[in-house]
Amino acid sequence: MAEEEVLPIPNLALAQDYFVLSSPSLAHLHENARKSLLEGIQADQMAPYYRIVTSASVLPLDQSLLERMEKENKEELEKIEERLEEAKKTEGETDIADALRARANYLTRIGDKDKAVEAQKLALEKTPGLGSRIDIVLSLIRIGFFFGDHEMITQYLTQAEELVEKGGDWDRRNRLKVYRGLHSLSIRQFKRGGELLLDALSTFTATELISYNDFVASTIIANVLTLSRPDLKKKLIIAPEVIQVLPELPTLADLMKNLYDSHYDKFFVALAALEQTHLKPNRILAPHARFYVREMRILAYNQLLESYRSLTLDSLARSFGVSIDFVDSELSRFIASGRLHCTIDKVNGVVETNRPSVKHAQYETVVRQGDILLNAVQRLSKVLY
């Protein structure tokens, strides 16, 4: 096996299919997901994973298929064990390490989580080359992604970063950025995740983790929320890598362009479409769909309001293509939570901005941090005295 080869195992597209089939609200996607999941399981002879999905009633159990795949798994593992025993008797450490990796990769491919993790850890222990060790840790991270094990992902991301710092090559460093970026999105760290994905945009090679189109889509979704308007154009809208894929991502193209061009009514339509097509059906982003939509609305409101000292509710409603009652209700909620710096004059139907000064914001930050420090000192004094 070439040291540079990165196998697309486990097949993460199947974890996405499993998520879709586990979500009643995505019933319109079930037929394609069911077909894709079953075909993927059969292609990789994933008997252990088939047991998981059938026990969860995601797929109906076909006993003959299960027995056939289990027979194939048993025969293949026996062949690998024979090669391993032969390597132990007649070959050197490198051949033994290759055989251990072959066993670990096969168990990873068929979706046997516990045995795969154990085998990958043993292969990691016996493998001498730094590059190969990084690849094994990346495989462990993918197992974590496949089974939605955040603790496992975090553990091996840390280990991968340590190994890369010891001398990982350019390609593996860039792959790791994508792994870290995707994990950041999964835990709602959109700014950090967006930075990492954007940094890997022109050098993306991590197709074992995510397809290129999905990678670009994730990069856009994260960065539209966090980039300033000048950076949005410079780093995304006119980026060749983004332009190349945008015809296949029309909803994201509309979202990004209309936000930048201040066509807020079209932006709201694109945001609603994005929620249904890219957020809720995505197992990484689905838990954060409501948060993301809310933050994008706040971003758009702020972008419009910062250009005016005051604006009528009627004008604001027409700009966003919604009713006055809707704007009134939504602005009131965001103002009350401190997310919009403006007031609503219901008598005159006017929204007046009252953005705080930079000095005032700095003062509030100092006071808030001072309170945190005082509380920490008080807790420490109780422990000491």
UniProtKB/TrEMBL annotation:
GO cellular component, one term: proteasome regulatory particle, lid subcomplex
InterPro entries cross-referenced by the UniProt entry: PCI_dom, Rpn7/CSN1, Rpn7_N, RPN7_PSMD6_C, TPR-like_helical_dom_sf, WH_DNA-bd_sf
Stretches assigned to coiled coil: 63-94
Domain PCI: 189-358
Keywords: Coiled coil, Proteasome
PROSITE patterns: PCI (PS50250)
Domain of life: Eukaryota
GO biological process: one example: proteasome-mediated ubiquitin-dependent protein catabolic process
Gene3D superfamilies in UniProt: 1.25.40.570
Role, per record: Component of the 19S cap proteasome complex which acts as a regulatory subunit of the 26S proteasome, involved in the ATP-dependent degradation of ubiquitinated proteins.
PANTHER family in alphabetical order: 26S PROTEASOME NON-ATPASE REGULATORY SUBUNIT 6, 26S PROTESOME SUBUNIT 6
Subunit structure and binding partners: The 26S proteasome is composed of a core protease, known as the 20S proteasome, capped at one or both ends by the 19S regulatory complex (RC). The RC is composed of at least 18 different subunits in two subcomplexes, the base and the lid, which form the portions proximal and distal to the 20S proteolytic core, respectively. Component of the lid subcomplex of the 19S RC.
Protein name, UniProt field: PCI-domain-containing protein
Organism: Polyporus arcularius HHB13444
